[in-house]
Amino acid sequence: REGLNEIFKFHNPKAQHECGCGESFGVQAE
Questions:
Q1: Residue 18, φ and ψ in degrees, nearest 5
Q2: Cα–Cα dist 18/2, whole Å
Q3: InterPro entries this protein is in (predicted)?
Q4: How many domains in the chain?
C-alpha cells in the first residue's frame, strides 16, 4: 500500500502539497 502512495505522490506533485488528497486516495484504494 505504501508503494502505491509513493507512486501516486510521484505522479501527482500536487498530492504532495495536499496530504488530504493522498489520504483520500489511499482510503478509496482499500
A1: -105, 95
A2: 17
A3: FeS_cluster_insertion_CS, HesB-like_dom_sf
A4: 1
* Residue at grid coordinates 510521484: 10
The type of residue at 17 is H
- SS3 of residue 22 by DSSP: helix
The phi, psi pair for 12, rounded to 5°, reads -120, 90
pTM flag (> 0.70)? no
Asked if 14 and 21 touch (Cβ cutoff 8 Å), the reply is yes
Question: What residues make up the domain containing 1?
Answer: 1-30
**Segment 2-29, tens digit of pLDDT:** 666 565 555 555 555 555 555 555 555 5
